[in-house]
Amino acid sequence: MFRFRKRTVVVALAIAVIGTGGLAASRMTALAGQEAPAPAPQAAVVDVAEVVNRTIVDWQAYSGRLEAVDRVEIRPLVSGTLTAVHFKDGALVKKGDLLFTIDSRPYAAEVARMQAQLAAAQAREAYTASELARGERLLADNAIARRDFEEKQNAAREASANLAAARAGLEAARLNLEHTRITAPVSGRISRAQVTVGNVVAAGAGSAPLTTLVSTARMYAAFDVDEPTYLKIAQASRAGSGTIPVHLGLADEEGYPRQGELSFIDNRLDVASGTIRVRAVFDNPDGQLIPGLYARVQLGTGKPREALLVDERAVGTDQDKRFVLVLDGANRTAYREVRLGATTGGLRVVESGLKAGERIVVNGLQRVRPGEPVEARPVPMAGSASQFTGEGPSAAPARQAPAARPAKQV
Predict the structure, then answer these.
(1) Of 389, 372, 385, 343, nearest in space to 59 by CA
(2) pLDDT higher for 61 or 241?
């Protein structure tokens, strides 16, 4: 019995030792697992470009409306019945093209009547002239009274005046007959006919127009500029800097692809709004510009100057601040607040906050934070090559192909 108890105690002690050793081993394994470092996350891949330094012209953007250079309301100059309409609504017409015809028979009859009056006046003038010549011979021989001679003289003068009146009346009748054919005074696009065939139209400025006609070869863009811009324009004009450049873009166009020139500045400033009316003229070879369209206008002001330019995608917004992420030599990003200017050549002018040659993140700004390392993929600054000209945004910037998305990090 004693030996059995001794063996039982030995076995229990052995089991206790084995359990204590297993627990210690498991604790050591757990501690080893906690102390093992996790694998470092891979750096995000971003597009990086150098800040561009170029000579630019300062541009100011405005909104305006297109206006026709020539706008004509076609009204009848003589009254009568409309007998024909010679155009299609909305068609392009040339100067001198026939638009409307008014019944010409009454005016043709008036021309015939005035021709008869002219013939009678000519006959009367010839007769009085011969009588006057006879009277002069008789007066020289004292064979006629002085009073009778003066009567013949006055009759000749009256006949000459009547002849001139008959000629003027015939000319007026011919003009009225000519006005029964209404032609286009300028080349352009015509509206619809407001009056149809068979209606009686009346002459006069108070009558309703038959249609309207606007020129299309050139088009005005009217807009309002602020007082500082007007002063810059006036200073450039006094300095003899030449034609002030203006560029235009429609609502569905990118950039400002149409070039024009300033043609008119109003003679007074609107004190209520603090602006002055300005008008620029643009060629319209494709006929796409029509009066009333919304126009985006950029006006060049000031002399050429050196400026730093960045892609608009590289600029982030932090409440009321604008910032970019600048890379150092170790490809770590740093927050940099910037002050922006106007857009030119497809790029945004940076007035302060950057230096020429610095590298900034231009694509993938949302994937990185300040102070984090990145894998930089060099790309050219969008719009910094052929799309940029020192003379301004004469053409819309070409669309840059989107950068390839980096593989998802795991």
Answers:
(1) 343
(2) 61
Nearest to 325 by CA among 358, 291, 284, 283: 358
Same domain, 210 and 329: no
Distance CA 319, CA 362 (A): 20
> Domain check: are 361 and 230 in the same one?
yes
Predicted local distance difference test score (pLDDT) of residue 235: 81
CATH number of the domain within which 188 lies: 2.40.50.100
User: Per the domain annotation, does 40 fall within a domain?
Assistant: no
Residue 123 has pLDDT above 80, yes or no: yes
Which of 167-176, 326-335, 368-377, 381-390 tops mean pLDDT? 167-176
Question: Which tens digits make up the pLDDT trace of 10-61?
Answer: 545 555 445 555 544 555 544 444 555 555 567 788 888 889 888 887 778 8
**370 and 222 belong to one structural domain:** yes
**Residue 132 domain flag:** yes
Residue whose token pair is 């501690």: 31
**Per-residue pLDDT reduced to its tens digit, 186-200:** 999 999 999 999 999
Q: State the pLDDT at residue 95.
A: 95
- Three-class DSSP category at 327: strand
Do 249 and 290 share a domain, yes or no?
A: yes
The predicted pLDDT at position 201 comes to: 95
Q: Contacts for 224-228 with beta carbons within 8 Å, 24 or more apart?
A: 224/62, 224/64, 224/270, 224/273, 224/275, 224/276, 224/277, 224/278, 225/60, 225/62, 225/275, 225/276, 225/278, 225/299, 226/274, 226/275, 227/269, 227/274, 227/275, 227/276
In a domain, 312, yes or no: yes
The candidate with the shortest Cα–Cα distance to 125, out of 172, 151, 170, 164, is 164
Please give the pLDDT value at position 302. Answer: 66
Contact 93, 196 (CB under 8 A): no
Q: 212 and 247 in one domain? A: no
Q: Which of 312, 323, 318, 328 is nearest to 353 (CA)?
A: 323
Asked if pLDDT for residue 63 goes beyond 90, the answer is yes
Backbone angles phi, psi at 108, to 5 degrees: -65, -40
Contacts 24+ apart (CB under 8 A), 119-123: 120/166, 121/159, 121/162, 121/163, 121/165, 121/166, 121/167, 122/163, 122/166
Residue 2, domain member (yes or no): no
Taking the C-alpha atoms of residue 150 and residue 145, their distance in angstroms, rounded to an integer, is: 9
290 and 202, same domain (yes or no): no
Instruction: Say how many CA atoms lie within 13 Å of 323 toward its Cβ.
Output: 16
